[in-house]
Amino acid sequence: MTVRFGLLGAGRIGKVHAKAVAGNPAAKLVAVADAVEKAAKDLASAYGAQVCTIDEIEKADGIDAVIICTPTDTHADLTERFARAGKAIFCEKPIDLDLGRVKTCLAIVKQEKATLMVGFNRRFDPHFAAVRKAIDDGAVGNVEMVQIVSRDPGPPPAEYITRSGGIFKDMTIHDFDMARFLLGEEAATVTAQASVLVDKKIGKLGDYDSASVMISTASGRHCTISNSRRATYGYDQRIEVHGSKGMVAAENQRAVSIEVANGSGYTRPPLLDFFMTRYTEAYANEIATFVEAVEKGRKPAPTGEDGLIALAMAEAALRSVKEGRTVKMSEFER
Amino acid sequence: MTVRFGLLGAGRIGKVHAKAVAGNPAAKLVAVADAVEKAAKDLASAYGAQVCTIDEIEKADGIDAVIICTPTDTHADLTERFARAGKAIFCEKPIDLDLGRVKTCLAIVKQEKATLMVGFNRRFDPHFAAVRKAIDDGAVGNVEMVQIVSRDPGPPPAEYITRSGGIFKDMTIHDFDMARFLLGEEAATVTAQASVLVDKKIGKLGDYDSASVMISTASGRHCTISNSRRATYGYDQRIEVHGSKGMVAAENQRAVSIEVANGSGYTRPPLLDFFMTRYTEAYANEIATFVEAVEKGRKPAPTGEDGLIALAMAEAALRSVKEGRTVKMSEFER
Amino acid sequence: MTVRFGLLGAGRIGKVHAKAVAGNPAAKLVAVADAVEKAAKDLASAYGAQVCTIDEIEKADGIDAVIICTPTDTHADLTERFARAGKAIFCEKPIDLDLGRVKTCLAIVKQEKATLMVGFNRRFDPHFAAVRKAIDDGAVGNVEMVQIVSRDPGPPPAEYITRSGGIFKDMTIHDFDMARFLLGEEAATVTAQASVLVDKKIGKLGDYDSASVMISTASGRHCTISNSRRATYGYDQRIEVHGSKGMVAAENQRAVSIEVANGSGYTRPPLLDFFMTRYTEAYANEIATFVEAVEKGRKPAPTGEDGLIALAMAEAALRSVKEGRTVKMSEFER
Amino acid sequence: MTVRFGLLGAGRIGKVHAKAVAGNPAAKLVAVADAVEKAAKDLASAYGAQVCTIDEIEKADGIDAVIICTPTDTHADLTERFARAGKAIFCEKPIDLDLGRVKTCLAIVKQEKATLMVGFNRRFDPHFAAVRKAIDDGAVGNVEMVQIVSRDPGPPPAEYITRSGGIFKDMTIHDFDMARFLLGEEAATVTAQASVLVDKKIGKLGDYDSASVMISTASGRHCTISNSRRATYGYDQRIEVHGSKGMVAAENQRAVSIEVANGSGYTRPPLLDFFMTRYTEAYANEIATFVEAVEKGRKPAPTGEDGLIALAMAEAALRSVKEGRTVKMSEFER
Question: What is the pTM of this model?
Answer without folding.
Answer: 0.96
